[in-house]
Amino acid sequence: MTAQRVAHLPINDGSNGWSRILPQRTPQPALCGEQHADWVVIGAGYAGLAAARRLAENRPDDTIALIEAGEVGENASGRNSGFAIDLPHVVGSSMEELGGSHRYMALARSAIDYHETQIERYAIDCDWTQPGKYQTACSEQGVGEFLEPFARELEALNEPFSWIEKSDLERRLGTSHFKAAVYTPGCRLLNPAALVRGLAANLPPNVLLFENSPVTHLETAAKIKVSTAAGIVNAPQLILGVNGFADYFGFYQRRLLPFAANASLSRRLTAAERETLACEDNWGVTPANAFASITMRFTNDHRILIRNNIYYNPRMRETASYQAEIARRHKRLFDQRFPMLPEVEMEFTWTGYVCLSQNGAPGFGRLADNIHTSVCQNAIGVTKGTAGGMLAADMACGIDNELIGYMQSLGQPNKLPARPWLDIGVKARLLWELWQARREV
Ligand SMILES: Cc1cc2nc3c(=O)[nH]c(=O)nc-3n(C[C@H](O)[C@H](O)[C@H](O)COP(=O)(O)OP(=O)(O)OC[C@H]3O[C@@H](n4cnc5c(N)ncnc54)[C@H](O)[C@@H]3O)c2cc1C
Fold first, then answer.
1. What is the DSSP track for 108-120?
2. Which of 152, 161, 293, 425 has the most CB atoms around it within 10 Å of its CB?
3. In a domain, 126, yes or no
4. How many domains does the chain have?
5. pLDDT for 16-26, tens place per residue?
6. How far apart (Å, rounded) are the C-alpha atoms in residues 352 and 39?
């Protein structure tokens, strides 16, 4: 038997703008007393929610306990920029890389189909739309080194796209900041907290969701025992969906890289400000370099989202004073792009934690006969976390699904050097990325 004390727990600082613009919700009760279930799933982000639903569908007579440290929609799954992306970031051009891209797209699109099915079935109001997205560059270097190869790769994949020049882009987005963009139509945009809430509110009846129940101890053997401050769940099988916290559970140690990512939502633009901006409604922009530059959205309720500042943050904690500094930076970035709207303030600024691996591989699969996992979504969890959760459940139930092989073909997170060498290496690599892409800010 292995007993693990989970010594580091997630916290919710209450700053998530996406949930603050939604009505208040009452969380499900915390775990209390001793319970028995057929399955226990830990973590109610995209991965855990998809795993719990799929287990319930695969095994309608089983009971599934889904245990969440905080409240649904307050984790990374509810704090992200709200892009459900159907294409890989980097495609590559060899036959092997193109084959990998096809598998990747099949996984991402299965997750998008899954979300669309649930959104329609339960009428989940999460602003889910399909405006596509603009992959942008703001320098000649970004156009040559990123956009042009990206366009060639999309051609090789036979994926639809349009090349948008600066003046057309300015008309569409209301800013002259970008040199060019590649527009792809498959991306969906959403309010991520609303989607996570909706998925949690419509779980099958054989899933019991416990919120505000941080797991503090995990015992693994032929049976699993999960303990929180006030309760215990015993179950024969476990699925772990705790993303960057997995190594505190004793898994993927020295393989995961928790990074902080920060976003701000402006207040709603007035009708007069929208007229000044004179752009299309509801668009999304992702940058040539995700570390250096910014992701932006113009939401359906007329707010501008700015996502910038990704940095290594192994403790997954941020101070209020640094968040205030980030809010000021986001306002500066907003002003550079929209100088015609000086009065528009950032209403909300928040930090979330993404989990990366050095080789970009997910933490997916079987860790023991009765332990499966979907963690480490490499910052594209709306699709990858969802697909990983569904497929971890299928794998645990012994269901034959060709997408399991696709997921496995993405590899496993590789081993990292010990700290402090790791910290030095990651920070040096990040500085190099920022310097390389300095014209893309
Ligand atoms: C600012 C920002 C922008 C992003 N933009 C995008 C985007 O546009 N598109 C995209 O696809 N991805 C984006 N991402 C990444 C995406 O949000 C994540 O990849 C995704 O949410 C991961 O989902 P998950 O279910 O694996 O993990 P999480 O959402 O992190 O869920 C893990 C859950 O485990 C719980 N947990 C951890 N420890 C315990 C414990 N001890 N006991 C009980 N529960 C525990 C946590 O509370 C949490 O709820 C962004 C992330 C951030 C922060």
1. HHHHHHHHHHHHH
2. 293
3. no
4. 1
5. 999 999 999 99
6. 28
> Do 188 and 118 form a contact (C-beta atoms < 8 A)?
no
Per-residue pLDDT for 436 more than 90?
no
In a domain, 201, yes or no: yes
Please give the distance, rounded to the nearest whole angstrom, from the Cα atom of residue 78 to the centre of ligand 1.
7
The confidence score (pLDDT) of residue 90 equals: 60
Query: Residue 432 has what pLDDT?
Result: 85
- Per-residue confidence (pLDDT) for residue 289, from 0 to 100: 79
Tell me which amino acid residue 217 is: H
Is residue 439 predicted with pLDDT exceeding 90? no
Distance 354 CA to ligand 1 centre (A): 6
Closest atom of ligand 1 to 350 CA is: 1
Tell me, what amino acid is at 31? Answer: L
Q: How confident is the model at residue 88 (pLDDT cuts 50, 70, 90)?
A: confident
CB 236, CB 223: distance < 8 Å: yes
Residue 434 has pLDDT above 90, yes or no: no
Task: Indicate the burial class of 345 (C-beta count within 10 angstroms; 0-12, 13-18, 19 or more).
Answer: exposed
Q: Which domain holds residue 222?
A: 2-79+193-254+360-416
pLDDT at 177: 95
User: What's the whole-model pTM score?
Assistant: 0.96
| Residue 267 to residue 159: CA distance in whole angstroms | 36
The CA 263 to ligand 1 mean position distance, Å, reads 14
Nearest CA to ligand 1 atom 10: 380
Residue 321 belongs to some domain of the structure: no
Ligand 1 site, residue 16, Cβ cutoff 6 A = no
Per the domain annotation, does 275 fall within a domain? no
Q: How far is the CA of 77 from the centre of ligand 1 (A)?
A: 4
CA separation for the pair 79, 191 (Å, rounded)? 9
Regarding the beta carbon of 188 and ligand 1, being less than 6 Å apart is answered: no
| Whole-number pLDDT of residue 292 | 78
d(CA 31, CA 215): 10
